Amino acid sequence: MKVKYLFIALFFTISNMTFAQVKFEAKASKTKLGVNERLRVDFEMNQDGDNFSPPAFNNFTVVGGPNQSVSNSWINGKRSYSKTYSYFLAPTKRGNFTIGQAEITIEGKTYKTVPIDVEVTAAVDQPTDGNNAEVIADEKLHLVAEISNTNPYLNEPITVVYKLYVGQQTGVSNWRQIDNPKFSDFWNQEIQIGRMQPREEQFRGEPYRYVELKKVVLYPQKTGELNIEPLTLSVAVDVPTQRRDIFGGRIYTTIDKTVAAGNRTINVKPLPAEGRPANFTGAVGKNLNFKVTADKTALAATESLEAKVHVSGNGNLKLFDLPSLNVPSSMEIYEPEYAENVQTNLNGMQGSISNTYTLVPQQKGKYPIPEMSFSYFDLNSETYRTLTSEEILIDVESGPAVSSYTAPTGGSGKQQVAAAGNQFRYIKLNASLRPVGEDPFLGSPLFWTLFLSPLLLIPLAFFLGKRREEMANDVRGNRIRKADRLAKKYLSEAKRNLGKEEEFYVSLEKALHNYLRAKLHIQTTEMSKERINALLQEKGADPSTAGEFNGLLTSCEFARYTPSSNVTMKQDYEKAVTIISEIDKQL
Asked: For residues 247 and 166, is the Cβ–Cβ distance under 8 A?
């Protein structure tokens, strides 16, 4: 009987020793692979440990991992524990290599794995990846920037469409933008995308699904090689695993991946110098139309009419100046009212722009509005075209007669009007006077008031003259006041659009560009940030002020893609007023 109990005790002792034995080993998914394949290496242990140290993986690149998995279960009263560290490796060259030893500390003792010998051969036709979710996500997810034209002319529109390609049997559950391209040296307009519709297309010879995430129209503002920055996204990719649920459906794992469209370079050609008209102001487009119209051709003197200079079609409508209207000097002409009706799609800007002038004839007669010409670079024929309007004859039917012939003059603003010979015909020469009262005027209160009033006005005139002299000598104050008026003039439209985000920033950017055109006498084709910065400093502006001006232009570009509050728009408006005032004072 004692022998029986002895055997039972010995059996349990051996069983406990077997269960308590520590196992720490390395396993490779294959020992022979092609240089274009992936290798999975698992380091498994049956007890939890500390200070895990993987090998150096010489001659391999770690493309995934370490991924950690733990299994802890009880079956028929017996505990089963397993912990695994998994790595996914890509060989860097062909040859025979050794994956070194990994180390771990369990219950104060250090354990090491046995090295694994691996043979790397030439590339194979059908590579396998060791069932790595990270690798699958890398291979089945691509962000691509498709550019319509990589060799455009200056101010010729190009489109950039960002597509996200997803391979078969994988999916995307979520995505967000990490970095948005700034499109330096381009005028840009993003095309709104409604509901995203997945489509199917061949990509790199394989069937893929894709969605269009972003569409942008760009107008290059410089010549030479220009860089288009990448769009960067964080994407949650659903990758299938080898496991299945209780209904037999495949279980997916979600991998967070960062993808970028990659830098793209385009080569912008300058507009040809040969054949360029003298009146060319930078207009580039297709089939542009030009006309000058008047709302009436017969009217009386001192009545007003409106003359409109109008350009329509497909081109860079927001990026050039309209020609100025010329009228006879006997017509008053006022500052034009600018209007635009422009839509931007993947073909570029389409619509019309116009300047409407208010004209007031002062004398009777017939006055011609001479023909005007407008030149643009036609992208269809790659040549310059000049369009000419018809002459408009204005018949002033009644009013003072013309004293002499006056030639047409250009420009805007009020004109000097020649005086007619009978200009005083409305003054009544035969007046019927009568006494204003029975009391004598001499010595009356009215007499003394009129007599002493000039004496009382002398101190007031002296004070006003002194004040005027002080203001005239206050050069800095006059500059500040003039600069403030100038800033408010250019920013009036932006102020009216406060609260309307897109309209506000479009009008703010337009105001900044119009100010530079008027102040620096440069065309929109020269409107790169580097050019602006150089010209401002050349004219005497502080580098910090020039930098703030360019920073505000950049803010206008960013605000199209990010929501802005009313407070932010008001701050940007006040900042624009301050910067324009500072630049005007410094220049």
From this structure: no
The structure tokens 């240089």 sit at: 35
Query: Taking Cα atoms as reference points, which of 431, 314, 305 lies closest to residue 357?
Result: 305
Q: Which two tokens stand for residue 398?
A: 């009644």
Query: Contact, 154 vs 223, CB < 8 A?
Result: yes
Q: What does the pLDDT look like over 292-304, one tens digit per residue? A: 999 998 988 888 8
- The 10s digit of each residue's pLDDT in 417-447 is 444 444 445 555 666 666 655 566 676 787 7
Q: Give the separation between CA 91 and CA 36, rounded to whole angstroms.
A: 8
Band of residue 74 on the pLDDT scale cut at 50, 70, 90: low
**For the segment 401-419, what is each residue's pLDDT rounded down to a tens digit?**
654 444 454 444 444 444 4
Q: Indicate if 85 and 197 belong to the same structural domain.
A: no
Residue 233 belongs to domain with CATH number: 2.60.40
Gap between the Cα atoms of 389 and 106, Å rounded: 92
Q: Label residue 46 left, alpha or beta by phi (over 0 means left) and psi (-120 to 50 means alpha).
A: alpha
Residue 318, domain member (yes or no): yes
Q: Phi and psi dihedrals of 118, rounded to 5?
A: -130, 140
Q: What range defines the domain where residue 491 resides?
A: 476-586
- Residues 566, 571, 574, 575: what is their CA dihedral angle, to the nearest 10 degrees? -140
Place of tokens 């794992």: 253
Instruction: Say if residue 108 is in the same domain as residue 147.
Output: no
Separation CA 52–CA 68 (nearest Å) = 11
Beta pairing, strands 298-299 & 392-396: parallel
Q: Please state the domain count of the chain.
A: 4
Secondary element (H or E) of residue 112:
strand 109-112
CA distance 349 to 342: 6
Q: Which residue has the tokens 């950049």?
A: 554
**Among candidate residues 412, 428, 415, the one with its CA nearest the CA of residue 362:** 415
**Is residue 462 classed as helix, strand or coil in its secondary structure?**
helix
What is the separation, in whole angstroms, between the first and last Cα of the chain?
A: 114
Which CATH number covers residue 90?
A: 2.60.40.740
Is 277 a residue whose pLDDT tops 80? yes
Distances 467 to 338, 372, 386 between C-alpha atoms, Å: 39, 48, 55
- Residue 285 CA to residue 387 CA, distance in Å, equals 13
Mention every residue, 6+ apart, whose C-beta is less than 8 A from residue 568: none
Q: How many whole angstroms separate alpha carbon 38 and alpha carbon 88?
A: 7
In angstroms, the Cα distances linking 97 to 41, 118, 313, 335, 520 are 14, 5, 67, 81, 68
Q: Please tell me whether residues 245 and 300 are part of one structural domain.
A: no
Average pLDDT, integer, range 543-548? 79
Does an H or E element contain 19, and which? helix 2-20
H-state helical runs in 474-565: 475-490, 492-496, 501-520, 529-538, 543-558
Percent of the chain at pLDDT above 90?
27
> Count of CB atoms within 10 A of residue 34's CB?
17
The DSSP call for residue 413 is B
User: pTM (2 decimals)?
Assistant: 0.50
